[in-house]
């Protein structure tokens, strides 16, 4: 037994004496921050760039063999020569913020160091570009629109559909619209009470499309003509695209004659559900929806109710607000997400004197993610 113990001690001493630098010879790249949150950036065509700094804390030179991104949207540069011991270097990543919302991009660094592979991460949040000149690029008269045509998308012949369309006035003068509009009977145009698109500002109109009155299915390209209050009464022709489809789950609604008139207030909202996408727990999210009166009598907004996840700005101003016929108002809502990660949902309820629809819910959905 004593002989066995002596042999073991001899082997341990022999290993230590003959391989003193074994653990020290391991070559390692130490990254200062392998995960970097770039924060909020504006959506643009200009790439954002970040450099990951590292140091060779080993005793041998290290070769970076390759850096492999998880998508083609990343451009990467890295040292092509060996990194000597105690030497620092950088891996530079360029990312094009082409889509609004949260992003997280990873890439793998392959080297002959220890470990052989290391993962770096670049993440952040891309905010929409708020410069109107970059958003509204299609000119129509003195105004600019987001798109050449106003597209309603696919709608069924169940009920009237509303869309808010924005326009940008880049000039130094306000643009006034008159009440004169040339349009098909199944399309209505709603201005705000001023009929003004202010100089240097973004304004909006609300269009409603009644597929029951249209009483046809298929793809349609139609026009409305609006007139400004300029000296020459400039006319503006706006193209509208609609894909009308038959609703088959229930019988189609009864056809209503365009000449039918019922004197009453009629509450309509631009949408009953909004998806706010990915958001962070401490991010301020403000959205909006449109209320408009499609009826022939004043619409009275009796009150707005919210749950814990929604907050209507200037909510007291909406108590007993009157919206005249064929007018609209924009309601701004702050989504108050909780700290819990995952899907969250809020609601705003509109109460009015519309006998047919005395209350209308608008739901807001968001997916709360970690930084």
Describe what you observe in this structure.
InterPro entries: DUF1573, Ig-like_fold. This protein is mainly beta. It has 3 domains: 101 residues, Immunoglobulins (Immunoglobulin-like); 114 residues, Sandwich (Immunoglobulin-like); 102 residues, Sandwich (Immunoglobulin-like), CATH 2.60.40.10. The longest helix is centred in the first third of the chain and has 17 residues. The chain contains 3 helices and 27 strands.
Which CATH class of the largest domain? Mainly Beta
The CATH architecture category of the largest domain equals: Sandwich
Taken in chain order, the helices and strands follow as HEEEEEEEEHEEEEEEEEHEEEEEEEEEEE
Q: How far apart lie the N and C ends? A: 61 Å
The percent range for helix content is under 10%
What count of structural domains?
A: 3
**Which homologous superfamily in CATH is the superfamily of the largest domain?**
Immunoglobulins
Spans of 5+ residues with little confidence (pLDDT < 50)?
13-25, 249-260
Mean pLDDT, to the nearest integer, reads 80
Strand order of the largest sheet: 9-10-12-16-14
Q: What would you call the shape?
A: elongated
The major pleated sheet works out as: 5 strands, antiparallel
Structural class: mainly beta
Contiguous helical run count: 3
Query: What percent of residues are in strands?
Result: over 45%
Please compute the radius of gyration using only Cα atoms: 31 Å
Q: Got a strand count? A: 27
Q: Could you please say which CATH topology of the largest domain applies here?
A: Immunoglobulin-like
